[in-house]
Amino acid sequence: GVAPAVQAQATIRWRLTSSFPKSLDTIHGAADVFAKKLNEMSGGKFSVTVHAPGELVPALGVVDAVQQGTVEAGHTCPYYYAGKDATFAMGTAIPFGLNSRQLTAWYYDGNGLKLFREFYDQYSIINFPGGNTGAQMGGWYRKEIKTLDDIKGLKMRIGGFAGSVLTRMGGVPQSIPGGEIYQALEKGTIDAAEWIGPYDDEKLGFQKVAKNYYYPGWWEGGAQVDFYINKAAFNALSPEYKAMVETAASHAHVTMQAMYDARNPAALKRLVAAGAKVLPFPKAVMDSAFKHSMDLYKELTDSNPHWKKIYTDYSNFRKDQNLWFRFTDAQFDRYMQSAKL
Amino acid sequence: GVAPAVQAQATIRWRLTSSFPKSLDTIHGAADVFAKKLNEMSGGKFSVTVHAPGELVPALGVVDAVQQGTVEAGHTCPYYYAGKDATFAMGTAIPFGLNSRQLTAWYYDGNGLKLFREFYDQYSIINFPGGNTGAQMGGWYRKEIKTLDDIKGLKMRIGGFAGSVLTRMGGVPQSIPGGEIYQALEKGTIDAAEWIGPYDDEKLGFQKVAKNYYYPGWWEGGAQVDFYINKAAFNALSPEYKAMVETAASHAHVTMQAMYDARNPAALKRLVAAGAKVLPFPKAVMDSAFKHSMDLYKELTDSNPHWKKIYTDYSNFRKDQNLWFRFTDAQFDRYMQSAKL
C-alpha cells in the first residue's frame, strides 16, 4: 500500500559507555548488538555510539555518568556499585544467588524489574537486562585448595561484593584491573584470581601461571549485565523508540548468554590441553562460603531497607526456583551429562 | 531536533495463526507479546492479529498455511511437522536433545538458525526462535512405573516424534487433542498422558485421574516454539521492519521461558497439595529410551540427508555443551538445590 503521511521519527544520537574492553567480544559485543539493532530498526535515525572504558567515562563510572546525563546510556554490571549500596549486587549476582535462567525469570515475570526500576529511580536510571554470562568459574589458583585452611590468608583478585564473603572466610580480597592480573599471579603478588569463564579467561593466559581452575563460581551462578538509561533521555523518546530500546536490549540479553554457552566448551578444552587442571571446590569451602553469605544477607536485611525490600522477594523466588529446578530440568541435565554422547 | 523529511514506513497488516489455544497464556501469550511489540515499535503501522487454532487454520496446519501464504505468520512447534520430515523435530526438541539454554545457544551463536533457515527454504519459511518451555515433565500415569515392563503395552498420549521412541520401548502412543485427554485418562482409554509442565498441566486437572507425575520429560529437555514467516511476506518488508520482527521474536523468546520458570514452582506445589505424586523415571526406563533414541537417530542419519546435515552439527554441539555444563553450571545448581534456603 501507499505510505501514509505520518510524522517520521526524530533523529536521536546517544552515547553509550561500556564497562568492558573491546577485547571481551562477548560482553562488550552485547552493547554493539544493542546499538546495531536500534540502528536497523530506526533506519539509522536512532544511533548509539558504543564507547570503551576510558574513552568518555571510567569502567566503573557508569552509574554516575548516566545519572548526571554525561552519557545517555551505559552497559555495566550493577554489582560494581555495591559500594554505593549493597542492593546493586542483586542486579548482577550475589553469592549463592539465582542462576541465569532464574534471574531472567525473576526480572521479566517475577518482581525483579519492577523492584529494580523503583530502586534505580533515585539514580535517575531506567534499566534493562542486557546479557548474562551463565555460571562463572571459581578462578585460577597457584596452589590447590584442599581444605578450608587453604583459604586463610589467600590473596585473591575477586569482585567487591564477593570479596566481603571471602574476607569472612579468612581470605584477603584484592582489587586488580583485568590487564594486570596475569603479572600479579606470575610474580606471586596474589595467590589466586577470578575473571569470568573459559572463553574470556583464555585470552588472559592464566593457565600458564596458576593452573588450578576451580568450579563452581559460587559468587556468580549467573551474572547479569544491564543497560542503564538516563531517565530524562528515555522519557524524551517516542513510544516507538522506547519499545525499540526494550526489544533491542532483550535481543542483546538472549544473544550474549548464547555466545557464552556456545563458545565456552571449546575454550575449556583448549585450556585443559594447555595444562589447566579443572577441580571442584571442596564441600567444606562451599559450606563455609554459603554460611558466611547467608550471615551477610541477614545483616544487610537488618541494616539496609533497600536491600531488605528486594532481597525478601529475591530470596523467596530463589527458594521456589530451586525446589522446581531440582526436578525435571536438573534430572534431565544430569542424565545428559553422564550419558555417552 | 526537528524530524527530517524522510519517507514514513508503510502500513503492514499480518495475520498470525497460533497452534496454541488462548487458555495456554504462556505459549499463546508469546505470540501476543510478539504482536504487541511490533505494534508499539511501529506506532501501530505494523499490526499483527493473532488467531487461535481453528479461526483461520487448524492447530497443526501452520507450515502449510505459511508456505502457501494463507497467513503471513505462524507460531508453532516445529516437531508437529516431523511427519513431513523428521528434521523438523530438532527445531523443537528430540528425546535426549539440547536443553533450553543449549538450544538457544545453538540457534543464535552456533549453526542452528543458519541450518534451519536453509532447511525451511523449501517451505518458503523464514523462522525465528519464539519461546521455550524449559524441560517438560514426563507426564501423568494411572499406575506407577517401576520397571521397564510397565512401559510394555502402555497406552500413552504423547507427541508424534517421541511416540516413535515409545513404540520401540513397547509402548503404544496415542494422538489425542489437549481437550480430550482428561476424559480418556479418567475412563482408562489411555494409561498415561504427557502435556507440558505444572503450570499448564494444572489447568487440565490430570492429578485427579492419574496422580503419578513423572520426571524428567526425556523427550523434551527444552522445547522451543518458533515464529514461521512466509518468505515473500518477510522479503517485502523494509529493513526496519525486518529488524523489528527479529527483536520482537527475541523478546517473546526470552519472556516465554521466563513465564514458565517463574510460574511452574507455585503450580507444582499446588499440584502436590492436590494429590500429585512426583516421581523420577527408573534408570532402566531412561536407559532404554536413550538407547532407542540413539538407534533412531542413527537410522535417520543413514536415510535422510536433511536430518544427517543438521543432526551432525546438533549432536556435536550437544556433546560439547554437556561436557561444559557439567562443570560450573550443574555444580552450582546442584549445590543450591540441596541447600537450606
Automatic annotation (TrEMBL), chains A, B:
Could you list this entry's UniProt keywords, alphabetically sorted: Signal
Which domain of life does this protein belong to? Bacteria
**Keyword Signal annotated:** yes
Does this UniProt record's set of keywords contain Signal?
A: yes
Q: Which InterPro entries match?
A: DctP_fam, SBP_TakP-like, TakP/all3028, TRAP_DctP_sf
Protein name according to UniProt: ABC transporter substrate-binding protein
Source organism (scientific name): Hydrogenophaga electricum
Upper taxonomic lineage: Bacteria, Pseudomonadati, Pseudomonadota, Betaproteobacteria, Burkholderiales
